[in-house]
Amino acid sequence: MKKRKWIMNKFALVVKQDDHSHHIAAKIKAALCEGGWTFDLEKAELIICVGGDGTILQAVHQYMDQLQDVQFLGVHTGTLGFLTDYTQNELEEVIQAILTTEPEVYESKLLEITAYGKEVKRYYALNEMRIENVIRTQILEISIDEEPFEICRGSGVCLSTQAGSTAYNRSLRGAVIDSGLSIMQLCEITGIQNSLHRSLNVPYIMTDTRTVAFRSHTFDEATLCYDHLHASLEGIKKVTCRMSNKKVIFSRYRPYSYLKRLKNLY
Known about the structure:
By secondary structure, the protein is α+β, with helices and mostly antiparallel strands. It is built from 5 helices and 18 strands. Strands 1, 7, 8, 10, 11, 15 and 18 form a 7-stranded antiparallel β-sheet that branches. Strands 14-13-12-9-16-17 form a 6-stranded antiparallel β-sheet, with no helix packed on it. Helix 1 (19-34) runs parallel beside helix 3. The longest helix has 16 residues, at 19-34. The relative contact order is 0.18.
């Protein structure tokens, strides 16, 4: 992540769909409007996400076409939020910080996923992309920078960013990556290993300058999952992934301890 400065006075809210989160959001909206800020869904500069990590992902995709003009701040209303900076018990603190403090902001790159078929379709992900097949064994030929790397057989693969290393990637026993490192991490999903076929079978961490390509005889029963969203891969011949020039910008109104946040995760 890269530090930047940003001065703002327009905000919007993206809220988890439960009564408690909407109650918290209403308090934030009233306090900020009273403090001189303007609520503006279309031209917001600060997107306040009230809920959890899923709410932040929803907000990122909702404002995908405006990422260069907005930044994100999370207020957590559940039991655990890795991407959120404040909890519901720190409501007064976060309101005062927004009204009185100029934040430092940090940039996190998105994965760019391109699916090639009759049409070329492009998707973006903050955490990870996955190619998954729950119907039959998915055979994937994987190349990196157009150099053949390996053939994976199993349920699929997961390619995550640093931000996503603590999400689905962690459940696959992938490495948790320290804050500030821009990488991509490749993990198999229930890979098949036997005397006739073996793949690397451990996470592979690569620089963010790589381009990873996935080819298969057929993707017709496979699904492309990107963050909390998904798309069919029917008719697709190849999927490529690289780090995009698109970035998500997070505000930081107080010191950020990645290690403390990581310890709270487990």
